[in-house]
Amino acid sequence: MHGSRRYEGSGTPRVVVGVSGSLGSLAALHRGVAEAHRTGSEVVPVLAWEPPGGEFGYRRSPCPPLLSAVRDAAEKRLHDALDAAFGGVDPGVRLRPVVVRGETGPALVHVADRPDDLLVLGQSGGLLRRRFRPAVSAHCLREAGCPVLIVPTPALQRDLEALNRRARWHLPFGPVPELIAVKG
Questions:
Q1: Please, what's the b/e burial string for 159-184 (b: 16 or more CB within 10 A of its CB; e: otherwise)?
Q2: Quick check: 110 and 117 in contact, CB under 8 A?
Q3: What angle do CA 135, 100, 40 make, to 5 degrees?
Q4: Which of 41, 106, 129, 170 is deepest in the core (most CB within 10 A)?
Q5: pLDDT 10s per residue in the chain (184 long)?
Q6: CB-CB contact of 144 with 119 (8 Å)
């Protein structure tokens, strides 16, 4: 893990949650908090980030001010996700937000490094997205030394994605009139 160190926290049980700000990661965060309530654990929301162009691109042409700006943006994104998830209300468990430089899957496995941790993830994107980017959940299931819980995609996210597909293909949003006539 470049630019990161081992997570050093208390000896209490931990629920490590991958957070990106997506609806799926917010659902995972809520599930992680529920698990923490049940087990008396602390919640470690983790957002992983990489320099623009990835580590290889950054090594070819380093720009420390850009790196600092991207790191600050990642920290803001994590705090915005926490605000979106809880609306400024205390979730009732201890939160220890962590921002890690590195690829998402390896970064999450790196933070959830104790056998008694629980790693909670939202479900990865659709088939096309998994084609071009490796699935974080698959990596974590293979490499994690602790239990991994994958939270299903929320119904709202599925509905929004379906609407987005219909809009992209210029399809009608409501029921098709021919089907209504046949049913009636």
A1: eeeeeeeeeeeeeeeeeeeeeeeeee
A2: no
A3: 85
A4: 41
A5: 544 444 555 578 999 999 999 888 999 999 999 999 999 999 999 999 999 888 888 888 888 999 999 999 999 999 999 999 999 899 999 999 999 999 999 999 999 999 999 999 998 655 555 555 668 999 999 999 999 999 998 787 778 878 888 888 888 776 655 545 555 5
A6: yes
Residue with tokens 């162009």: 53
pTM over 0.85: no
Query: Which sign does the torsion angle of CA 21, 27, 30, 35 carry?
Result: negative
**What is the C-alpha to C-alpha distance for residues 88 and 79, in angstroms, rounded to an integer?**
10
What tokens appear for 72 in the block? 């600050």
The DSSP line for the chain is -TT-------SS-EEEEE--SSHHHHHHHHHHHHHHHHHT-EEEEEEEE--TTHHHHHHHS--HHHHHHHHHHHHHHHHHHHHHHHTT---SS-B--EEEES-HHHHHHHHS-STT-EEEEEPP--HHHHHHS--HHHHHHHH-SS-EEEEPPPHHHHHHHHHHHHHHTT--SS--HHHHHHH-
Which one-letter amino acid corresponds to residue 49? W
